[in-house]
Amino acid sequence: MTDDDLCRMTATELLPLTQSGKVKAARLMRAVLDRIERLDKDTNGIANMDPEAAMADAEARDAALARGEAPGAFQGIPITAKDLLNVKGLPTESGSFAHKGLMPDADVEAVARLRRKGAIPFAKTATPEFGHKVITDCPTNGITRNPWDLSRSCGGSSGGTGVATAMGFGPLHLSSDGAGSGRIPASACGVAGIKPTWGLIPHESTTDVFGSFTVIGVMGRSIADLALGLNGMKGMDRRDPWSFGSPAAPITLPGDPVKAMKGMRVRVMMRTVNDWVDPEVEAAVLNAVSALTGAGAQEVAMIDDPVHDIASALTHMRAYQYGRFGHLVEEFGDRMDRTAKMSLTSNPHHSYDALAMALRARTDIFHNMEDLLDGTDVYVTPTITTPSLPIDQVQDAPLIVDGVDYGPLREAWYPYTVPQNASGHPAMSVPVGMSSKGIPIGMQIVGPWHSEATLLTVAAALEKLMPWADRWPPAAA
């Protein structure tokens, strides 16, 4: 077995080897570090890492196993975390010179739980400044590119997480998702990623535990790995009030997820505030739905007027970001991303009236989501309306495809992913095909609160019916 073979294995496949000592944690970590050194020069998905500390941690795991200590549930598994999440020993720079070299005192709880179970958090993945946009480039780390086509974006704001997952820079990768930030790059990079229900994974480090839209999620190259990651991080933490409702039972997948599709009710929503969907994306999503119905799922009728007030939801998010980071503009504004600076600068859209409307709209979005889920087990959409974007796409510029202007990016490219952050519902992106230009296409699956097992079961059925794990981007060759 070569080192590249190890890097292409899932966490579920690796664990029996690392827990038994057949594969040393140090060998696995060295393989991952070497792969990053060799392959990440163009994709630029890793923002920070400490190879010496990572190797020391891996060697300590091996030594403990050799002494007869019981292996951890994540024994020796390398994990990365988006550079908005604290990892002790690595800076949390958030893609900003305002936080350059900022060292946290402790792991965020989700990371701490995995570390206590034997995982090795060894790297931070690239994000746009403060995670403010759906394209990953930032002042401190430059441009992060799509491994399937270096002339295209990897999406964002968990863009580096998507790249690391697609490239085999370890098997498990922690994202954060505030308006699709985990699902969008999962789709663009051809991997699976999930945003769980509010509170399933505690997010105690946010400054507004009651009002934040952001949820910690996970990306991987197999659905079993997503379940593994969620189970490793989930559970109550007294610092996060939403986590008090986190179910104690582990998330499990059926032995045959395809058989589990019999009787599963699926609603298809192809458009919302957007008028246009790339025909290849629409065809791929409908093909995936056909695969599910062929396995026994039942497609249920779409409800009327499935429109979400995503503009109000984003007003709420911008107000939160302004309150958290706006004070940094005076000192660091001349070194900030232009659109980050714009979003952190006071303007009439940050008025009391606008925020009050956004707060009311959040309740409306929740009710709209519940209406969409009434009479069905899940609903599905494209994750994004067209595969990836040109690398020079600007956040506040319109979506233009083949010379046609389809309007503002949030309404035209990612209208499907915003509502679940406002409402708290779980949602995930799963690969469902490739465009004629060789760019991945993703489908979003959405369900009721705490229905992660259902979402993952649908995704696992597609994983079996339409396999994707053996597809690796050219940059990973």
From TrEMBL:
Membrane spanning stretches: none
Gene3D superfamilies, per the entry: Amidase signature (AS) domain (3.90.1300.10)
Specify the superkingdom: Bacteria
The GO terms describing molecular function are: catalytic activity
Q: Which residues form the Amidase domain?
A: 28-456
By its UniProt entry, which InterPro entries does this protein fall under? Amidase, Amidase_dom, AS_sf
Pfam families xref list: Amidase (PF01425)
Instruction: Give the family per the record.
Output: Belongs to the amidase family.
Name assigned to this protein:
Amidase
